[in-house]
Design a protein that fits this description.
Layout lengths: L5 H15 L3 E5 L15 H6 L7 E5 L3 E5 L4 H7 L6 E4 L5 H8 L5 E4 L6 H11 L5 E4 L4 H5 L12 E2 L2 H4 L3 H15 L3 E4 L2 H8 L1 E2 L11 E6 L4 E5 L6 H7 L3 E4 L4 H8 L4 E4 L6 H9 L3 E4 L3 H7 L3 H28 L7 H13 L6 E2 L4 E4 L22 E7 L1 E3 L2 E2 L2 E7 L6 H19 L2 E2 L4 H14 L9 E3 L8 E6 L18 E4 L2 E4 L3 E4 L2 E8 L8 E6 L17 H18 L5 H10 L4
Helix pairs in contact: 4-5, 11-12, 14-15, 16-17
């Protein structure tokens, strides 16, 4: 029998917990690979609670239930999750461990799925609950799966070959580099569960996860340069088998756990603490392997794009820039008439992107945000939250596409007429723009990390007594994840991963400062940039800077020119001249006229 209400689903889960003799269960948004986006089969939190955000978790005991989200989802969680069933909790102020310690009796056993959590997560929660006498216990199977009668099966889509000319390096070359790393660190093998790492290492792609072209699979790479790919047999085509060659053994995904327990016995194995779930570590330990936590050796290599990947990005950005420009012209005409809402705007942008035969997918769900919704940095429009774009307001659109050569991510904030933006809007927009220009123009010595650059983007907002609560920049993949580590530009405090990562030539980052006035409007300007070496006359040591990759007009109606320096005006004019140069060949007629008008010098 299918359960339609969340109340019935919660009740069924509690009955299953009683049957298993446990007092509670933790429900994350996660899959076995610690992916940012997960397939429908892994959307257990959404099924149980109705929450549709991309980050959060629930905890259910026999008598209590709570849902934990961060500040991005404060509004959304209340719209989607029944407050009579789940207490709303805000992280990091509220912690799971403290809540469990509060609501559980001494001796309570709280189950978790060891294939959906990392070792560090378990240790952190255990520290908080053990003084109360509460124990975390790994579940043999996920209790939600036992009561979710119509749970979708994992995607059966075939894995695809990613051509070496796009990848810029063969899988054999990449595996040889991993083998060298294993020998250097004294390991026999490394277990790679992160889907984008598997895809990068073997030069394969897939269609198993929304917006990220990866195939559900694992790799065990060995110090002799060989590897084993664990993947469902229906995903393997003759072309894929030929591409992987004799040095990569293709095995059934269901054989992965037994390979960990049996075949690595006595071996030294490396695991990435951010991606290797407890289930992997437990299987290795039970089989007699020795494991050490170290960063996956593909992660830094994947982040440093080779010349082919860099050029692929440039090509993708131009194609994407033409689509976004067509959309902005359409929006300028249609939105002031009052007939455009957030959903129809997002659909129209997807339509413009979809005219390019090279587009494979969007790189994430479009943030199409009007009026006060634009003040929610990670707002996700749906049928319930959708509003018309009001004439005489600010509209923010953050979007991207997946192209064979690269992954795009761009935000533009525009004024929707009639009328003029307020002085406050122009002031805030221009301060965001000034910070964006400072990141784009930054020159810094080798050894600099993203956390050291972050203040450049915020300084003009701080002068006005305002700030923004998200990072300034994240890494981006090559026809892979739109959010890719380890590099990041963000405030160093708060333990944010990646802010201490040294930046290297070849790394791609977003440059996206913003400003958000709650309930009124939001502003963000985002381009992607490529880290590159810089030559400076008389320089001592090596220096780096950024090459701009994203070229789409920035709304001149929101710029307060008197706040810009001569150098900043020159940057704007040079940027718009480059936009015109790159996009003009792809546009014609009235679209080209619009582009020429929007890129006139300030």
């Amino acid at each position: 029998m299918l359960m339609q209400t969340h109340e019935a689903r919660l009740a069924a889960l509690r009955e299953e917990l009683k049957r298993r003799g446990v007092d509670g269960f933790i429900v994350p948004i996660s899959d076995e690979h610690m992916s940012e986006y997960v397939g429908d089969y892994a959307q257990r939190l959404n099924w149980l609670t109705g929450f549709g955000g991309s980050a959060g978790f629930a905890a259910v005991t026999l008598n209590h239930a709570a849902i934990f989200v961060d500040g991005r989802y404060t509004v959304q969680v209340r719209e989607q999750v029944d407050g009579n069933l789940f207490t709303y909790k805000s992280v990091p102020a509220d912690s799971l461990g403290a809540w469990l310690a509060e609501v559980c009796e001494a001796g309570a056993k709280i189950a978790y799925d060891p294939w959906l959590h990392t070792w560090a997560w378990v240790e952190a929660v255990e520290k908080q609950v053990e003084p109360k006498g509460v124990t975390l216990v790994p579940a043999e199977s996920n209790p939600i799966d036992a009561v979710w009668a119509d749970r979708p099966a994992p995607s059966p889509a075939a894995a695809l070959v990613y051509e070496d000319d796009l990848a810029g390096s063969s899988s054999a070359e990449k595996r040889a580099a991993v083998a060298d790393w294993l020998v250097k660190h004294g390991h026999d093998a490394v277990v790679i569960p992160a889907l984008d790492s598997v895809a990068w290492l073997l030069n394969i792609r897939g269609a198993d996860v929304p917006h990220t072209p990866v195939a559900l699979s694992y790799v065990i790479a060995h110090k002799d340069g060989s590897a084993e790919l664990f993947i469902a047999p229906e995903k393997v085509t003759p072309e894929l088998a030929r591409h992987l060659g004799n040095a990569v053994t293709i095995r059934d995904r269901d054989a992965f756990e037994s390979a960990l327990t049996g075949e690595l016995s006595g071996k030294s194995v490396s695991l990435d603490p951010d991606f290797a779930v407890v289930g992997i570590a437990q299987a290795l330990r039970s089989g007699g392997a020795r494991f050490t936590f170290k960063q996956d050796p593909t992660i830094l290599a994947k982040a440093i794009k080779n010349p082919a990947e860099q050029q692929g990005h440039r090509d993708a950005q131009v194609r994407d820039g033409a689509a976004v420009s067509r959309f902005l012209r359409w929006l300028e005409i249609e939105a002031p008439l009052g007939g455009v809402d957030e959903l129809s705007a997002a659909a129209k942008l997807a339509e413009f992107r979809g005219r390019d035969p090279g587009l494979r997918d969007l790189s994430f769900d479009t943030i199409s945000a009007a009026a006060g919704h634009a003040a929610l940095p990670h707002y996700k429009v749906d049928e319930d939250s959708n509003i018309p774009i009001p004439p005489g307001s600010i509209y923010l659109v953050d979007s991207g596409g997946q192209y064979p050569g690269g992954t795009t991510d761009i935000t533009r904030t525009v004024w929707v007429g009639p009328g003029e933006p307020t002085a406050e809007m122009r002031d805030r927009f221009t301060r965001v723009l000034k910070g964006h220009i400072q990141i784009d123009r930054a020159v810094f010595p080798q050894g600099t990390c993203g956390g050291q650059l972050d203040v450049l983007a915020r300084q003009y907002l701080w002068e006005a007594g305002v700030d923004y609560a998200h990072g300034t920049g994240h890494g981006v993949g090559s026809f892979l994840g739109v959010h890719e580590g380890p590099q990041r530009i963000a405030k160093p405090s708060g333990g944010q991963a990646g802010t201490g990562q040294e930046l290297f030539a070849g790394m791609i980052l977003s440059n996206e400062p913003g400003y958000y006035k709650q309930g009124a409007f939001g502003i963000r300007i985002e381009n992607l940039v490529l880290t590159e070496e810089r030559r400076i006359e008389g320089m001592e040591g090596r220096y780096l800077g950024f090459e701009t990759l994203t070229f789409v007009p920035i709304d001149r109606k929101l710029i307060e020119k008197s706040l810009l320096t001569t150098e900043e005006v020159a940057w704007m004019d040079a940027y718009h001249a480059k936009v015109r140069e790159l996009l003009s060949p792809l546009l014609e007629g009235e679209e080209l006229q619009w582009l020429e008008r929007e890129t006139q010098p300030l």
